[in-house]
Design brief:
This protein is mainly β. A hairpin with a 3-residue loop joins strand 40 and strand 41. It starts with 7 loop residues before the first strand and ends with a strand. Residues 1-45 have low confidence and may be disordered.
């Protein structure tokens, strides 16, 4: 079945978030919540370390910690009372340095009238251990001194869970003049992570002499210190979509985005995919806003959607034809470089609302929300 003309098209221009799936079910944000999954002591490398983040996500810088080295201590042989105390080498310490890789705060693309979901990944710092050290004792030729030992010291691993905030949406108006309340997304905060320093004290064996005045010299193994490591906290501030009253060409601003609501009959005649001449005024205003409010060169997506009435294949074809028609208009009459534009038809596969009521009856209001064209711009 072909799409009726009297529908609402949501035209979204997002200047700070990347375009993903342009439509998703609304969610009531519950604020920052820990991820269900635990966190390993250090993030697992799943690909190249990021140097920038998509969708306007925040880059969490890498943290490097230095290697620690202590030289071995050589104790020379000595002769006491005619007996030889053999030489010994007390091992040194080599603890490799490390790097906590850079990460991205994931900003999930959201449709118009929604605030993006936010995900701050887990992170952690591995444990470090300074091994024990022992200076052997001496019992030879009347010179005696017990062994001296400095025990191993460990600074435990520390970690923090991932933190997320759900997508939050305003309800989509079904008629002109309807009041749409504001929406608020809480901040997301991942606390700092701190691994304390580790310190192994020095070990000292004093000089030992026999009654004849023959001595084994003193031996000292210097202390070893591993410095502390800190990963700074990460915070994504709260965001709000202001209340507005729906209308033809209604514009509202939100989290780095500009959204336009326009009835589809302004764009197309019933069952047609040709842009109506009467749509020029609204499309010119949208094209001007893209040039003014979207970063130069940023990609612009035009996505077509339908309800679930009729043949799915026909719905997909019509949705793509309409998306391409808007693309052609923006390229030929809107002054936007065609290389920036991409059209996709999703048909009925990505509904914004149920097509039927809970009892299974047809829901014309819900289907009307699903028949739409979405224009979105993403920041590279």
């Amino acid at each position: 079945m072909r799409i009726p003309a009297a529908v609402t098209a949501l035209l979204l221009l997002t200047s700070a978030c990347a375009g993903g799936s342009p439509e998703r079910p609304a969610s009531t944000g519950t604020g920052a919540v820990p991820s269900k999954a635990g966190t390993a002591p250090t993030p697992a490398a799943t690909g190249p370390e990021p140097t920038s983040c998509p969708n306007g996500g925040q880059l969490i810088p890498a943290v490097e910690y230095p290697a620690v080295h202590a030289d071995p201590v050589h104790v020379p042989a000595a002769t006491v009372g005619g007996r030889t105390v053999p030489a010994v080498t007390i091992p040194g310490v080599d603890i490799p340095g490390g790097r906590i890789p850079a990460q991205c705060v994931d900003i999930r693309p959201a449709p118009g009238g929604c605030l993006s979901a936010v995900h701050i990944p887990a992170t952690g710092i591995p444990a470090v251990t300074i091994p024990a050290v022992e200076i052997p004792g001496v019992d030879a030729g009347g010179a005696r001194t017990p062994p001296v030992r400095s025990e191993a010291v460990t600074s435990a691993a520390v970690s923090t869970h991932a933190v997320g905030v759900d997508e939050v949406c305003q309800f989509k108006p079904s008629r002109e003049g309807e009041y749409v309340a504001s929406a608020y997304r809480a901040s997301a905060y991942r606390a700092s992570v701190y691994r304390a320093s580790a310190y192994r004290g020095s070990a000292y064996r004093p000089r030992a002499c026999n009654p004849a005045g023959e001595c084994v010299p003193a031996v000292r193994v210097p202390p070893v210190r591993v410095p502390p490591v800190r990963i700074e906290p990460v915070r994504v501030p709260p965001a709000r979509l202001e209340a507005y009253r729906a209308g033809r060409g209604q514009v509202f601003r939100g989290e780095g985005s500009i959204a336009y609501s326009i009835e589809a009959d302004v764009l197309f005649d019933f069952g047609r995919a040709a842009v109506k001449p009467a749509a020029a005024t609204e499309l010119e205003r949208i094209a001007a806003s893209i040039e003014r409010d979207v970063p130069p060169g940023a990609a612009v997506r035009i996505d077509g959607h339908t309800d679930a009435k009729g043949d799915p294949a026909a719905n997909r074809r019509l949705s793509e034809q309409r998306a391409r028609a808007v693309l052609d208009w923006l390229a030929t009459k809107g002054g936007i470089a065609r290389s920036r534009l991409k059209a996709t038809g999703y048909g009925e596969t990505r509904p914004a609302a149920p097509n039927a009521t809970a009892s299974g009856a047809d829901d014309p209001a819900g289907r009307a929300k699903n028949r739409r064209v979405v224009i979105s711009a993403e920041k590279r």
